[in-house]
Amino acid sequence: MQKIAIIGSGGSGKSTLSKKLANKLNLPVYHLDALHWRPGWVPTPVAEWDQLQLELTAQNEWIIDGNYGRTMDIRLREADTIIYLDYPTYISLFRAVKRRFQYKGKTRPDMAAGCEEKIDLKFVKWIWRYRRDQRPKVLSKLNELKSSKQIYIFTSPRQLEQFLQQDLSEH
Fold first, then answer.
1. How far is 2 from 46, CA to CA, in rounded Å?
2. What is the pLDDT of residues 26-40, one digit of tens each?
């Protein structure tokens, strides 16, 4: 486990997991939300974003959390390990709403400076529709990669916690 891509619905816990894995495995972490958004929720220009993805994935070791579907293939291609948090919608929605109140008026540690925590209808709809719209595409990609990558799909936080209790240096 040297290059780990963590994907899943908004609110599923990707950033929290990446920090836990970084502590256990001593790998650098890159939160895509913190890299993509500039102060005031201004997105990074497309060409610059694509170049950054190539630079990050060219490194020898990393944990990258986030989806960003247009560039996901870059990360999945270079990862040796892919972790998919495939949780029920209610878990992700609850966590997203909880996070909104937890960081109200503040910027999360895994977010770019100047991007105060928010939750809007567009984001709620994306989480609500994730299992219907995004999940089938993600599972198809993972199925294509299963012979060449270590892939872990967790369908509950309990499964993930059991995984984290293991000696991950053996994986």
1. 27
2. 999 999 999 999 988
